[in-house]
Amino acid sequence: MAADPGARDASTRGSAAWARPATPHPQPAAAATPLVLSGANVVLPTGTVEEGRVIVDGTRITGTAPENARVVDVRNHWLVPGFVDIHNHGGGGASFAGTPEQILTAIRTHRLHGTTTLVASTVTDEMDLLVRQAGLLSELAEQGEIAGIHFEGPFIAPCRKGAHSEALLRDPDPAEVRKLIDAARGKAKMVTLATELPGGVDSVRLLAEHGVIAAIGHTDASYEQTVEAIDAGATVATHLFNAMPGLGHRAPGPIAALLEDERVTVELINDGTHLHPAALELAFRHAGADRVAFITDAMDAAGIGDGRYMLGPLEVEVSEGVARLVEGGSIAGSTLTLDRAFKRAVTVDGLSVEDTVTALSANPARLLGLSDRVGSLEPGKDADLVLLDADFGIKGVMRRGEWVVAPRLA
């Protein structure tokens, strides 16, 4: 991997000059003075409250300000829930296939960009390596660093493999799917499958029985095969439109089936490369904001910049922010961070701030079964929030009551 350490340092400074990264080891939130962030446009599940406030006491949002609370004026800003990314392979020059230190680097990189809850995604590799990786990631999930594990591959269609090694692909044998679930020790959150392959539908049923999301992706399925998989329990479309047949008028394929079924949430990579704006609009128009989850599908280069990287066993060239395989030229994940996805959704795609928050926070939190803790700014939930300026640039990031990016507050 050709990552420039100097570039990495620059990326961690990357929130605007008005904000600064918090110290590496901030004081526990429980020991901090309660905080009232007052005067911002606060985005709640019921809508936006102008000149609203969010009260943080310890690690949680609360409904009542203690007498000793510090009141901070954040007028002319937005307060939104921390972002929730259910599909992410790495960042900051590191991947989730690396050492614990490298994994933490990737996690912290995305936290600087507002992602306070993150699921670590794997890429296709030898089964033994994936089992070992699952064990390591499950330990980090137990420590609260990540929200769980997403296995993307090896159970995907060779003709829709994207940036996965074809030599390592295999059919979704339920016994092998179960092997990965067991290796994750209860921390497996999602498995992406080409459900048309032998064992695909049976594997969907297995995943549903174990409370793991079955996601349809990297698939060559027909419309009818996709409907069968949804009826068996599949509930997510892995990066809709990408790595699947296009929408046809005689053979509508998986896209039509995934968009029309109210049981399915569709992932979208809103980086301006993976999707034409008309495709994004189509997804929002037909699925509705309550069934869209913005993801990064980020690889090592997120938060770093152009250069040569590895995605699993495959070499990737990143040029002008677009990641492609050196051999074959397929798009290889993204260099996206969710703050950029947010800003693009509002300023380029014309989505409302409320719908964007739903797609970035509330919907993915619901999918993960974490809506009681994260995904919205409500009393009793974790104090995970993002402070944005009027142009939707990040000015502060708080996770569990601690500033990850500390704004220079008066």
UniProtKB/TrEMBL annotation:
Enzyme category, top tier: hydrolase
InterPro entries (alphabetical): Amidohydro-rel, GlcNAc_6-P_deAcase, Metal-dep_hydrolase_composite, Metal_Hydrolase
Ranges annotated as biased composition (Basic and acidic residues): 1-11
Chain spans, region Disordered: 1-30
Keyword Kinase: no
GO MF entries: N-acetylglucosamine-6-phosphate deacetylase activity
EC number: 3.5.1.25
Amidohydrolase-related domain span: 79-404
Superkingdom of origin organism: Bacteria
Pfam families per UniProt: Amidohydro_1
UniProt keywords, alphabetically: Carbohydrate metabolism, Hydrolase, Metal-binding
Family: Belongs to the metallo-dependent hydrolases superfamily. NagA family.
NCBIfam families: nagA
Name of the protein in its database record: N-acetylglucosamine-6-phosphate deacetylase
Species name: Streptomyces sp. 900105245
